[in-house]
Fold these 4 entries.
Entry 1:
Amino acid sequence: MKKHTSAMNTLVCITHWCLQCDSHHPKHQVSGAPALPGGEVDELICPTCNSYDIEELQEVSDAQ
């Protein structure tokens, strides 16, 4: 029996938006900027244009 795969099996949640190039990315594609020794990584980098102007998208209860 042949197993079918559907688009639903490969659905990836978009979690981040780049304000510079207006692209949207899942969390695993948005990388953290290199931190200084002893520092935390809190800056994200767009995988398309390398901008630091990345916003995390928030789910809204009244989305249409």
Entry 2:
Amino acid sequence: MNARRLPTLLLPALLAMAAPGCIIVSDDGDDSAGDAGSGDAGSSDGSGGADGMDEDTGAEGGGTADEPTPGLWIYAETGQSTNECEFLDDPSNGWGEYGVELVDGGFRVTPGDDTEPFDCSSGGGSFECPQRLQEEVMAGGTTLQVLVTIEGTLPMADAMAGTQLGEVVCEGSDCALAEQLLGTTLPCSFSVGFTGERAGS
């Protein structure tokens, strides 16, 4: 990902538009993905949504999967989030689609928003996607980076639940000015809870 060198005064507006999430689609896919996600989340089999997955996992004695089923998945957020980065009005993606393919030791996520694919390790009913650079903005001698890590569980092969853990960090000589412009202390963090369900499951 190439950094963009921009005037300092544009920094707050650009970071406010930065997408902190990881497995979302562009606006073009929101309507169809939302219908699929909302319909499955409320299904009686409990395979979608945070509440359904928690209930199924508990009822069946904690059944888990080592890896997800490859294919197209639907992403939805649970509404459970935190945000220490005041300049990010809403660190949320809503819902969307993403692709899953199996790789050695885990799986690869291909976001539906044309951002770079990334790998996650999985096993024993849990998964983790190492910290990666989601967004980078340069202004003068200062660089702001949005870093994202994902942690989650696989209660079954066709469902996952997790949290996106984001951090905005600053490097360079003008970080104090960046903090003043953004109205926050850097680094700052945010988190977004989500569920994933394989499309058609």
Entry 3:
Amino acid sequence: MEEARCELQDNDWYMTMEELDAFIAVLYIRGAIGAHNLDLDSLWSIKWGNPIIKATMSRNRFREIMKYLRFDHKSSRRQRLNEDKFAMISDICYEFIANAQACYIPGPYITIDEQLFPSKCRCRFTQFIRSKPDKYGQKFWMAVDKDANYIINAFPYLGKDDHKPNGERLGDWVVKKLMEPYINKGRTCTHTLLFAQLITPDRTNHGLHGFVVPIRDPDTLETFVIFNQYRIPRENLLNRTADVTPDGQYESSFSDPSRILGAALENLSAGRIGIMQESCLTLASAAAIAVRYAATRRQFGDEDNEIPLLEYELHQWRLFGHVAAAVVFRIYVESFTRIYLNIVEKSLAGLQMEDLSDAVSEIHAMVSSSKPLLSWRALDAVQQCREACGGHGYLKCANFGDLRNNHEPTVTYEGDNNVLSQQAGNWLLRQQASAAAGRAVSTPLGTVAFLASKERILKETFKNIDTGSLRNRNFITSTYQWLLCWLLQETNNKYDQELAKGLSKFHAKAKSQVYRWRELTCAYAEYLVLIFTWESIDKKEPSLRPVLERLAIFYGLWALDKHLVLLYEGGFATGGNLSRLLRQAILEACAQLKDDVVTVVDALAPTDFVLNSVLGKSDGNLYQNLQKQLFHSPGAMERASWWKDILPHSKL
């Protein structure tokens, strides 16, 4: 109506909803009888016209509505067309697509192609395609159900699109965009791979094996997964390493027990190591976004001279620990993965290895403690880095929300972190028992070799008098060794106390988790990170060692700060000297890292395309990138669809 009133200079021009329904009905009838190419006058012809159309609406009224019918607001059209060539009909078009998706579930096969809708009207995105019969028209990319020919997604070709990533082929981008509503929705997921204990009819438990489990009828698109005495056929056992005969006999593919151990190690740990690697990437991405933002964003300071956030000591203290963690975690995971793959390769190849069983147990303990530490720290880092970006961190285009949503499940899958910590604790307590009994500690990788000197280590106390003596490997390593020895002793004492009360081993372990078992495995994982990192740093190029050493030292101090209560509780330190010097050393380390931290995150960060954050682009143009993103977001220049819902109602 706005268009007609403006063109006709008639504020009384009006169209009822009944007339609009009738107009749409005529269009439907026109298509149903195959008259879409006929002249309009023919449809209302006295002799040859369609009686239903003539009874529905007069020809002149139909022409009038068609002339003035618009799907946007004329007052804001000019501004919106500068940003979106499709602005005049984008709202109704995308609403139509949304309704099409809501009202129809496509079959298993979806086809994608382009279609030219013939038209010679004046339009900003009219195409001329010589090979098409009609030559001129508007081109749409469309996704259609193969069997029903039902449209499930479409968008127009408007020329160069700023949203298409640089370097990505147009065809790939079109397919991904059209299939967005159906990607990661489990449409093609009919089976899952899970690990379970294999128990043969003779009641022998053969340990963890992989099974292919059907989770959906292939002909059912929507489903729930509930396992309730669900029978898995024998044929669904993944039998690369072992199989079960039809009569229930277990057959191993390996005659050498060491190769069976290697296969078990691969099954148990491969997925968890993958999560550790993923956690490193998530942590590095979050730290890169926050540090780049802090280096560019200016707030407060002297008049006409605002200071970058990165210059504030508080901001450094909030972020630099996560930057250091991103570096040392990555070094640790790369180093540990090489050791793990080397052992698996030798085991599966049948090569003789001394203490293979002990090595497998130690690697399992390392993975079971490291996966919780890395995934928890990455989750904490995403939250802290988001907060460090202020209100901008909440933006969808900042990518913190997606980073957190994608990472958060890792703390519970492939073994819940708290349960995995208990498995690592079991191995540590066994080594502590061996050391207490005077037997050799079973540590082929040497991660707890210091337990042989447990009595001497526990007699050590804090005697440092300045921060310089804290910022070195020896102090951090010896402090962690003392902490681990003391936690092992306290955890074992707590466990024995619960057993003395008459509790079973299971319940005694359950009562020993809080403040003891959990802290023990976290401290062990932090110690692993540090010793593997330092070993790797010593092999790096001399030019890289100083900054890597500062980062490793900073991480060690930052991690020890979280254990101050335990260090005082165990008697390692008395008075306030340790806490005062430790925290002063952390702040001094912040000042030392400030000039290098942007370069460090640039080395860690993925490409801008992968990082996908307007706050963390490598070009440093924070404000320009933010403005461009906001201006080009769909609907940015329009009213929200629900704006009428918040208008105050008349009180009359």
Entry 4:
Amino acid sequence: MAGQDQNQSNIKPWDGSAVFFELRPLDGPQAPMPDKLLALLRVVWEELHCAGALILNSHWEAEAALVAEIEKRVNAEVICCGPLIPSVKCSDRTTEDSGAIQWLDLQKAGSVIYIGFGSLVTPAPEQLREIAKALIILKKPFLWSLKPVFHEHLASELACKESRGKVCSWVPQQEVLMHKSVGLVLHHGGWGATQQTLTAGKPALVWPMASDEKMAAKYLVEKGAALMMEGTGVSAERLVQAEEIVKALVDVETTCKEGAESWGRKLRISLEDGGASQIELERLANLVTKVCCS
């Protein structure tokens, strides 16, 4: 939101280093930031002096250190009104024609692995085959949201009607994640999936593919809610073998369940009337009203 006088700003001129985020693996040297992303951050940084408020799709407690750092660097109000996720109560079942929810209703509580890589990027065919092999080895029910063009790369055991899982071209992801039958998630680390999974309180194996997804993975790992698979991406460093995927999923289930459930409870409470996120939304509404009436 605009409203600050440039002369009152304490934002330092861009020097190429004033960036809040670092693109780096959990361990190891810092990776160079892509030029296009660096250029975008530069524009955002240089225009911050015009902002009267910064609206973040996050929860203040979940990113307290980052919010505190931002507040020190800008003259704007910082409003954390997230997680901004679809309400399951408002879900339109008429649009859900994949049968995913009906299938989940038939499964045991906490027994299903949900796999979803988002709508933009999908692992290479040979990697999809390794993930499919891992699911066969695990012998657990699974729900996989995967574009039809990639179905041919799955093992025949997953495609047959007798399979213990279900492969869908699309699923209502928020409703799936909140379903009692889903106990474990494998996703790409997109911010939407990250917020939805954490709010649902489900432990995750994060498989970063591009953009800020490695940072999102680190965000979940630091909360004890996930583990991250290293060496993945659009230009993957390696082919992750099925046996490693199996071990990682088992480790997530045994080490991250408590952390995920704890954060899920916090975030769901924050979305209720009187919760932290609702209070932040009221702050935002009051600020917008004030600006519009001034």
